[in-house]
Amino acid sequence: MRKIYHPFSIISSLSLIMFVSVFLAQDAEAENSIYHNSEHHFSFKIPDGWMKTPQKFVDDFNKRLEKQAPAAFKNITMVQLKKSTYWFDYPYFRVGINQKKTSKEEIKKLIASKEVEEAMDQVASEIERTSLLTKNVKINKPVYDDKRNLILTGRTSYIVEAGKVKSLMAIFLGNEVSISLDFYSSEADYQKYMLDFSEVINSFKFDPGYEYK
After folding, report:
1. Is the peptide bond before 7 cis (omega within 30 degrees of 0)?
2. Parallel, antiparallel or unpaired: strands 92-98 and 178-186
3. Alpha helices for the chain (secondary structure H)
4. In a 3-state reduction of DSSP, which class is residue 85?
5. Is residue 53 situated within a structural domain?
6. What is the DSSP letter of 140?
7. Residues 6+ apart with CB under 8 A from 30
8. Most buried pick, 31, 124, 160, 202, via CB within 10 A?
């Protein structure tokens, strides 16, 4: 039997962080190494030693999240180490969707502006305001990869009872939707799992015809 939520494991987004309660569930079935979402037309590789979190727990998490405040990205699925004791235990990553098409010109203009640092500070303040367990949030200035239509940003924070946590968010702009890959790890293990995180990012692609245009 696997515990679903670690009592001190926090799932967060750029807009808010919430605490999830503890349940019990059976271990998830083995997953294919390639995750493909036929509804939103994208895929990526799940690294060796990782597995999808059972969808019913992702859905439960989304319901809890909606009670807090609207989120920019709704979770589609989540992935974590097979050897994890708890669902959502570090390290893990979640996959989110924003169904509003985003203009890369607007993104590039914002990133290049003086207002971007102020905007990141506002997001950090909102995260701390909506979470009782998250402190000292610092968000790095985002960068834009024009070739891949990809936004990258990092974040550090202190989670009560969990310590320092680092995250990396990759947002891929598509023709119809934007997809976020949001990676989380304890600060001590961040470099250890960076190759896995990079493998997922480098393998991500939209189906033909659904790339950003």
Report:
1. no
2. antiparallel
3. 55-68, 104-112, 115-130, 190-203
4. coil
5. yes
6. P
7. 51
8. 124
Burial 149-183 (b: 16+ CB within 10 A, else e): bbbebbbbbebeebeebbbbbbbbbbeebbbbbbb
Domain CATH number, residue 23: 3.40.1000.10
Report which residue type is found at 179. I
User: How many domains, in total, are found in the chain?
Assistant: 1
Q: Is residue 88, in this structure, part of any structural domain at all?
A: yes
pTM of the full predicted structure? 0.78
* DSSP per residue, 3-51: ESS-TT-EEE-SS-EEE----EEPPPPP--SEEEETTTTEEEEPPTTEE
pLDDT digits (tens, 9 = 90+) for 167-192: 999 999 999 999 999 999 999 999 99
pLDDT tens for each residue of 120-132: 888 888 777 777 7
CA dihedral (135, 140, 141, 145) positive or negative: negative
Rounded Cα distance between 99 and 114, Å, is 27
Q: Which domain covers residue 149, as residue numbers?
A: 2-206
Is 197 part of a structural domain of the chain? yes
Residue 149 belongs to some domain of the structure: yes
User: 102-149: per-residue pLDDT in tens?
Assistant: 788 888 888 888 788 888 888 888 777 777 777 888 888 899 999 999
Distance between CA atoms of 35 and 106, rounded to whole angstroms?
30
CA separation for the pair 157, 138 (Å, rounded)? 6
